[in-house]
Each structure stands twice: as structure tokens, then as C-alpha cells.
Amino acid sequence: MNADDFLAAVFDMKEPRKKVNLIAKVRMFRLLKPADNRPSHTRNRLGMINLAQRATPLTFEDAVHLLRRTTFHPTWAAASALVGKTPAEAVQALLNVVESPPEPPSWANTQPEFTDFAAAARLWPELQQWWIERAITLPSLRERLVLLWHNTFSTDYMTVYAGQWMVKQSQLIRAQAFDFKTLASTMVSNPAILQYLNGNQSIKGNPNENFAREWFELFTLGVGNYSEADVVEAARAFTGWRISGNDGVYNRGFADLGQKTILGQTGAWEWGDVVRITFEQDACARWVARKLFMAFVEFYPNAEAIQQIGDIVKQNAFDMKAVLRILLTSEHFYDASIRGALIKSPAELIIGLSSTLQATHVNRTYVIASMMRLTQEPFYPPTVEGWKGHHAWITSSTFPQRQRYAESFVDGRQTGSSSKLMDKTGKIFAPDVVAFIRQLPNNNDAKKVVENVAKLMLPVPTTQAQRDVLLEIMLAGAQVYEWDIDLPSAVQRVKFLLQAIVRMPEYQLM
Amino acid sequence: MNRRKFLRSAGATGLAVATLPTIIDSFTVKAFAGGDPRLQQLLESQDRVLVLIQMPGGNDGLNTIIPYTDPVYYNSRPTIGIPKSRALRLNDTLGWHPALAGMRNLFEEGSLAVVQGVTYPNPDRSHFRGSDIWLTATDADVFGSTGWVGRYLQTLAPNYPTVLPEHPLAVQIGTSTSLGLLGSSGPMGISFRDPDEFYRLVNAGGGIEEVPSGTQTDTPAGREAAFMRNIARSADVYATIVKQANDSAGSPSVTYPTTDIGAKLRVVSQLVAGGLTSRIFLISWTGNNFDTHADQTSSSDPTLGAHAALLGELSGAVSAFMEDMKNKGLAEKISGMTFSEFGRRVAENGSVGTDHGTAAPLFVFGKNVNGGLYGKNPNLTDLDDRGDLLMENDYRDIYASVLLQWFGASTTKAQDVLFTDHSANALPLFKTEAVSVKDYNSSAATIVSVGPNPATDHVVVRTRIDVNATASVTLSDLRGRELRSLALDSWSGVGTIDVQTLPSGTYLLTLKADRATTHTFVNISR
Asked: Cα B352 to chain center, whole Å?
């Protein structure tokens, strides 16, 4: 129902005593209207988005937009390499990155330890380091999906306890990142998720509904596309799982093999049938479409766009490469209206800044601690819903925290303190900001430096007034013709420029 | 940019830091009361605080308030049922979980209300829908985007965040911002873990206004940037005020438990004691801690285990907090309320736990709370088709009590905030006499009635005064500015004050008869 129909329906009702309530409802309805998907060049008045493949070769801004959205690594070099390529060529290159899975931690296949807390807890930071090492060193679209899918099939190391199981889940996500159906189906037997959602404690005759509910609500369909009865029946079908060593083991002897009705289909269903029936639902394709759209395109999806992408997900049998190829080469993806429409997660902010400034050798423990302070501790989402993202990242505490992190990083210091940054080996280091500027063309033209840095680091075009202020900040009293990247004073001036940029609210956008 | 520079540039761009007409700080109160302790007390009681404690994950109501004479309870919960002998007696049929001794003491003192069976029609068993519904105060089928607290605070500060009140309207202790605090123009409060840390964060580096914002505001990026600028600005303005309050509070008068909730309530106590006039403080556990699908109790002793630890954490922290408030003479102005997105199923599951359910009890506490039990015992045989409890009280009826009785909002305003009129079903949870004339009467000048209150265009004041006295009534705003004055005919003792041109808000009405003075409050609401 659109707003006009809603209002008409409201005022046609014949209950005058409810008038005030209705006005309140109308007001509420207005508040609920999505604010951000207004008609644009690539969205018509019905809300349909233009998914036609864009043929125009990428500009620098297009290229860095693509990198910000699809990797943790928006660098000058990577964006420059994509300039002039068509979107199809660029996306093909991103999807074809040759990547062998990272070596798991040495203890990944050992027996989990449940009695000695210290022995179990020792693995947790190593688990985080293992993930960050990969994410910060390999510019890869797959790694963005690894975080997205862990934020879908959420688990935390404290509840799961066994670091081995967390690694196993992360490996599964990485391996099947582009095949959502296999990913979800295999997740049923994953020890981390079995433990986190009590799937290993759900028995015939007395099922535990935790996993079944989240399966529908958070993993595959979303609220409104299943009933409470489906949760109860699916919980019966998901019985029979236990964890043995580091594996989920299905024992039909403990499973409820009786007749059940799930999403309208009746039979003696077992867990595999629930998966099958779930993936037959159009709502499942729409749910995955929504996840992708919110992660890569816009945070406030409209129903029509989700329907369009859902159709594509369905046509391509949940093959994420096929779907992303269409989405990331579409006219809509490159439209000005979506530039800067997403708020960076701490991972995107922290890894992104270190990569942009060619400082990815920063100390891993510090990176993890900083993500934690910005409320995204790796492998520790707050609830099974994962991190809510977008506006939830920004509060009166975390926004200044983000500014302090970034301005201190530029200066080679730890957040808001005088302690120096360390690299991954424990040696003191600072990002080489002059080297960063030297890779830009025309780096002996102060105005060009400001222009290019802004183009790289800010997702929306800057105004002349903004560039003027940034130039003034960089020059710090000097004349524009005095700018010389080779002078020793350039270090401090570049820092002034970068710090002003990373403090801008726009730097938090992508 | 340092803070001073920021404030200068904020002024230059037309942003303002202003005072709300309906909120008064302690300095104003002292000045206005002019040494009259009764008036000061009356004014301070206007300055009421609500502490909201969220128990996320779905608190098991039946193991919180235990129906220990109901055999169905024990049949449904053979492993996790709290034995009658271990429950702390509440009445002949109900008992407290043994970890709730502190809550029980408040109940025995008459300053804690247990409201039974709270939920809403067609309860949702999803954590996220459930908590969203509670926080937005909407029907089960409405997806709201603003919180009930946020909407209430917006009625106090309609121009927030362009015009910021002197003190933050709401404070969430933690790093996230609850949906409950969102108004239609973003969060209506601020969040921080620790006042000193917050101050350092805001003041340790550069500001936000050094580079002007771009011209585009009607784009998604423009709106997101504006969203952040508003939050950053409120942080910048309030970090110092929060630190000042914290620094001037002195030490807590009690030892708080070293738990998450204990530490958070300790911060609340310091801020209130230090004179911060925020109306709402919100605290919560950080994860879905109450989601006890498995190992809710120890398998050998149902009074021990995860749920017992959580209830103990709540009870210990709330006890310490209320004791501290009492010692500091602040008990009059503090109330608290717990809530959780749902209760849990009557029958235990096979993993020493319980699955998502529906109705559950909640607690409202404070010196000005009408303690006691509200609502019937849960009926464990009349269940819905999922085996869950039926509704006894709609959660919005309790919100209505808070708005109408605790914050003195008009029925219209409460309805605006809650979208529907719940005033008829509001439970009498709060003592409203705290702001009545009774305690402050002087025998020579008695205000018999003031009405209508809230008023729209006129107020009739009926008094009892000495026939020979020279008497007058005046109406002042809460900054002490006298706005209306009327000589009273001492024979009838009745006067009518025209309030048509006064803005909505709370006003002080003063009756003077020779040297006797009596005060009361009048609300104007349209």
C-alpha cells in the first residue's frame, strides 16, 4: 500500500471516535516512510531500479566507489588501475581474484578444551588475529562477504567457547561465500552454530526452538514470511544433531521423524527437507537480495528493488557471483544518489584507512582493540542478529572515538594518546604520509594534492569552499606557490590535511 | 578545533544552546525558591528521573515471580522449577526468585510494584521484533522507527537537535543508542560508558566544524553527514556538562556491586547527584543475556545458574542504587522500571531451559511508587495455542502511567507519544501527591482546587483564606518569571486566570494571603 492509498483507507473508515488515533497513525506512517529511496536517475517513481549494465568506462571516482563498497582496500593504486575499464571488466577482475584459503591456526583441528578456561580463552585472540591478517592483507570481495555472512550466521567466541569451532565456521563461510544455498545448508551442521543456538541440545520429544526460529527469521526468510507454527514444526525437524569432536553429527535415532507441516508442506520432514522447503520460498531469495542490497548498495531498501534483485537471486539459484555481477555493474550502482549513502563499519574504517595510507602492517592487536572500542569486536557480535550497522555505528561516544582513532593514526599515534603506533612485529612506526602523497600525480601542486586526496578519501564530491578550507589547513600559513612535497615541513602539512579529512563526517561514509 | 572554537562557530552558524521552559536545573531552583525549603522541594520534585533497565533476551517471568502453589508450574518445569521452600514469600500464592532479595525488600517497604502478565495483543516471539515493539510502543504489526521515550522528549524539546537544552534529555550508559531514544530527527539523548572517558574522547582532538559541510543536504549522503554532525555536536556540548556533574557528585554513599549493571547504575547515581537534569537514564545488558534456551539453571539446583546470576545482578544493583539515592536525599525524584521483550514458555524444554514466550511481570520501583502487586496471577492452564501465557496488562498502559503520573504529561500528550489513548487503563503506579499542595499548605492560605488542570484557556483557583486577608494568586514559569497576577476576593476565595496566550508547559501557581504562601503546579497543554 502506498502513502496515498493508506491515507484514503484511513479517512474512509467510519469510526469517528478513533479520529485522533488515526491522525497519530498517519503521523507514524509518515515517520516510517523510507527516507532515502526517492526517485532518481536510476530509480523510477514505482521504485524500480535500473539494473541495466552500465557501459560507460569507470572514472577514478567510479573506481574508488566500487573498491570502497566491495573491498576493505580503497587505495589510489587499485582505483587507478581500474580507470577506463568498463564496469563489467572491473567487476570480473574483482570476482576473479585468485585466492587460496588462509592457513588455519595450528590448533584448528585439535580437541576443544572445556575444563581449562585459560587454555580455551587463549585461542580467542588468535582467532581474531587469524581473521584480521587475511582481511587486512588481501584486497578481496570474498573477504567482505566473509564478514557479511558471519554477521548473518552470527556466533560469538564466548558462547561457542571452542576456538576450533569458530575457525571451522569461518572457513565454511569463506569457502562457500558465493554459494549461499550450500552455505546455509552446511551451516545446519556447523558446530559453532549448533552450540550458539542450542541445536546440539534439541532432542526428539522436547525440541529447543532457538535454531529453528533464527533459521527462518535471520538466516533465510525474515519476519512475516513464516508462522509460529512453522518454528515449532521446524524445531522438531532440526532435532538429532550433536557435536562430536569438531564436527556436527546427525543421528536419525535422536531425530523426530514424525509428520510435520512446514511452510504449507506436510511430510515426515528432516532437517534437509526444511532446507529444501525454505529455499523454495520466494521470500528466501528476497531475504538474500536484501542482505546484499543493504551491504553493497543502500541501507534502506525498498520493496520493489528487493523484488527485482530477489528475482535475480532466484534465477541464478543463489549464486552470489552471478547476482553481484549484475548488481555491481548496474546503472543504479554507479548513480550519484547512492554515493556515500552507507556508513562505514569499524572494519571498513580501520582496515580502509590503513590500506589507503599504505600502512597495512599496523599491529594486529591494536587493530582488533580499536575495532572493539568502535563496537565491532571480531567474532563477538552483540546478539544473534549481528551488528545492526549503519546508524547504530554512530553514537555520541563512537563518533568522537572514530575521529580520535583516525587523526591519531595519521600522526602515528594510538587513539587519542601520545603512545606511538606499532607495526605487526612490535616496532614503532608511523604511516609514511609523504610517500602516500608522492604516488599522486601533480603532487607539487598544492591544489591538486587537496583535490586528489579528497577524491580518494571522500565518497561525495567536495565543494570549492571545502577544498579552499582544506588547502588552507594544509598550507598552515604558507602561500600556495611555496608548497613543495620535498621540503621537510611537508610531513606536518600533509598530516594536517589528512587529519582534517578523516575528522569530517563525510569520511565515515562510503 | 578546540571546544571553545567550536562553540563560537556553532553560534556563528545560527545553532543555539538554549533552556527548555519545562526543565529547570538545580541552580535555578535554589535561586527561585529563595531559601523556602518547601518550595525548593516542590520544584525539585518536578525534576523527575526515570531509570529504564532493559533485560534483553526475554526474561523468564515464571522463574522471577514464582506461582509456588500452582501444581501446573511444577509439572511444566520438573527440572528448572524453583521449589516452594526456596522461593522468598511474596504472598500466599507467589514467591520471589531467591536471587531477588533486594527487590523483595523494596516491595516490602512499599516502594516496588510488580505488574503481572505484561505484553501486547498478538505478541511477537522474535527478539528483535519484540524489543523493537517495546521500544517503539507500537502494535505488533507496525514497524516503528522512533522510540516512545524519544517521542516524549521531543514534546519537551521540539527543536532538538538544532536547539539543545542545557542538559541532555536522556542518557544511555553504554556505547550504543537505543531505538527507544530515537525521535524523528535522530537520537534525543547521548550515550557514553564513563563520564571521564567521554570528556577525553570529545576534547582530545579536533572538532567537526573545521571543514564546512557540503551544500548537498537532500541526498542520502547529505542526510547521513547531517545525522553525524548533530550527534557530534550534542557530544561536544554535553561532554563538559556531564563531567562537571560527575565531578561535583562526591562519592557514592554505598558500595555498588562490581557487575555490569552495578557499574552502570553507579554512573547514573553520580550524574543525578551531581545535578544533571536528564529525564531518562537507560541501561541494559549488552547482549541477549536473558535468552535462556539452555542451562538456565544448574541441573542439580534450580535456584542456581545463569538466570539466578542475572536476577541477582539486577537486584543487587537496584538495591544499592536506591539506598544511595535515599542517602543522598534524592529518592523522591527517582523511579525505575524494568522491561524485557517477552517472557518465556510455561513448559521447560529439553535443554534445562525455556523457549520464547509472551507475557511476564515487570518491576516499577521508587519512593514515589505505589508498591504492591498489580494484576492476577498467571493462569498456567489457559494458554494460547503455543503454550504461552495470555496478556494481563498491555505494556503501553504502564508507559501511560509513567507519562501521566510520573512526568505529569497531559492525556493528549501521552496519546501523541503512544499513538493510542491508554489513559483509561493506566495503572495507579505512582504517587501523584508528591507535587500536590497538601504537604506545603499553610493554614492561613489553602488552595482547595485548581482546574481544569491541565488547562487550555483559563484556570479557576478556589481557595480558603481569612476574610480579612489581602490575597493574590500569581502564575510564574519555572524560571521564576511572574506571568499573571490576580487580586483575590477574600469572601469568595475564587479567581479565574486567563492563560490563553501562555505556551504549553508547567507553571507554578502561588497563593499569597497576607504573610502565608502556598504553591502548586498548573500544566498548560493544548
From this structure: 35
